[in-house]
Amino acid sequence: MKRLLLRCFFIVLSAVLLITCNKKEDENKFSVTGVSLSKAEITLEVGAIETLTALVEPADALDKSVTWESSNETIATVLNGVVEAKVAGTAYIQVTTNDGGHYDLCKVTVIDVEDKRAAMTLTTTKGGEFIIYMAGTGTMSINWGDGSVTETLLPADEDIFDIEKRGKFAFKYDYVGNFTRTITIKGDNITHLYCYGNGLTSLDVIENVVLTYLHCYDNNLTDLDLSENMALIELDCSSNRLSTLDLSSNKELLKLFCFENQLISLNIGNNSKLVYLFCDYNKLANLNVSQNVMLQELWCDANYLSTLNVTNNTNLTTLGCSMNEFTADGLNALFETLHNNDGNKTIYIGENPGTNECDTSIATEKGWKVEYNWW
Q1: N or C: which terminus of the chain carries fewer CB neighbours within 10 A?
Q2: What is the per-residue pLDDT across 170-187, written as a single tens digit (0 to 9) for each?
Q3: Region(s) of the chain under CATH 2.60.40.1080
Q4: CATH topology classification for 35-111
Q5: What's the pLDDT score for residue 50?
Q6: How far is CA 13 from CA 3, 21, 58, 215, in A?
Q7: Cβ(110)–Cβ(46) under 8 Å?
Q8: Which band of pLDDT confidence, cut at 50, 70 and 90, is reported for residue 17?
Q9: Phi, psi (5° rounding) for residue 335?
Q10: pLDDT above 90 coverage of the chain, percent
Q11: What whole-number distance in Å separates Cα of residue 249 and Cα of residue 320?
């Protein structure tokens, strides 16, 4: 009996050992032995996305789950194998198997591709709130000069002339301290730029060939190059410190406001479409408007003019030339060049050396109303 029991015990033990061994063999058979990524190295442009695939071995492994990780999420992020490039630099994407901790790496190089959109730069020392108004089509970016960048769609221009609706065209930034900063604006279809009252010391818009409206008044500009901005229709650069202004390339220009500068030279010889010219409060000793045949309003008060010929300006309805250097003879010569077309026409001649001695009848006989001052 004892021999029988002992024999049964050994049979059961052998069976248990056999089952246990087989189970361990099965478990080893389906365990993960390694992992490899579909690419060992990739190069992406900023903003680009690429998907990496993890191949877990063996193919019949029971647990193929993995964990993804980036060595530097500032440069590149990863989510379920989808890699997104953030900023220029190098990062490593690691995949690790949850079974066994096997891993593989992919080197990710992120590069900055040159932004070839037309650039405009504005330099200022102003602290506090800085506001730019812009309109056009497509996308544009503003690098505020301190590492902050705004990328957005441009609003269309239909309401930018409405002061009450202009808020949607405003791009604002708050600066701390009065330091020199250069703001860079990029966009291929920026048609309107209003950057007035920002303490600008320089403004470069030469690359923006589609610019049609530029208001940069009330700044500290000493130079303004508009030689490539041939689409320009309206320019307001008043209340700056410009000494010369050459608009010979801007043949589409209709309105020019350049008063309260230090202009000694103003080239408007090619601006035959010009309708409004406000160049008062400058230092002009000469002003040639012979080619500005469409001119309706001319304000050149408070300069150093002693002669002015408006023979070709037959559309002129308003002429302000007070506070200049016109003698009586100089004013009489100016009156002789006034046209005698019908309509309401006014000339202002106050505070010139010859104001009280000139013959105003020369002008009044042509239908012009002679006033001394406009204020």
Answers
A1: N
A2: 899 998 888 899 999 999
A3: 35-111
A4: Immunoglobulin-like (2.60.40)
A5: 92
A6: 16, 12, 33, 97
A7: yes
A8: very low
A9: -60, -35
A10: 70
A11: 26
Q: Per-residue confidence at 118, pLDDT binned at 50, 70, 90? A: confident
How many whole angstroms separate alpha carbon 368 and alpha carbon 375?
Answer: 18
- Token pair in block for residue 232: 């320009």
Across the beta sheet with 297-299, what order do the strands follow? 170-175, 128-136, 190-194, 213-215, 234-236, 255-257, 276-278, 297-299, 318-320, 345-348, 368-371
Mean pLDDT of 278-286: 98
Give the separation between CA 250 and CA 266, rounded to whole angstroms.
13
* Token duo for residue 40: 């060992």
* Structure tokens, 43: 């190069």
Domain(s) labelled CATH 3.80.10.10 in the chain stretch across 242-375
Tokens of 156: 């269309």
pTM (2 d.p.)? 0.72
Mean pLDDT of 65-88: 91
Mean pLDDT of all residues in 261-273: 98
CATH of domain 242-375: 3.80.10.10
- Peptide bond between residue 58 and the one before it cis (omega within 30 degrees of 0): yes
Question: In the chain, what are the helix, strand and coil shares in percent, each to the nearest 5?
Answer: 15, 35, 55
What is the rounded distance in angstroms from the CA atom of residue 110 to the CA atom of residue 53? 19
The sign of the CA dihedral 6, 11, 12, 13 is positive
> Where is average pLDDT lowest: 89-103, 216-230, 294-308?
89-103
Cα separation, 216 vs 199, whole angstroms: 10
Q: How many CB atoms lie within 10 A of CB 36?
A: 14
Q: Please state, in angstroms and rounded to a whole number, the distance separating the CA atoms of residues 304 and 310.
A: 17
Annotate 195-218 with b (16+ C-beta within 10 A) or e (fewer). Answer: bbebebbebbbbebebbbbbbbbb
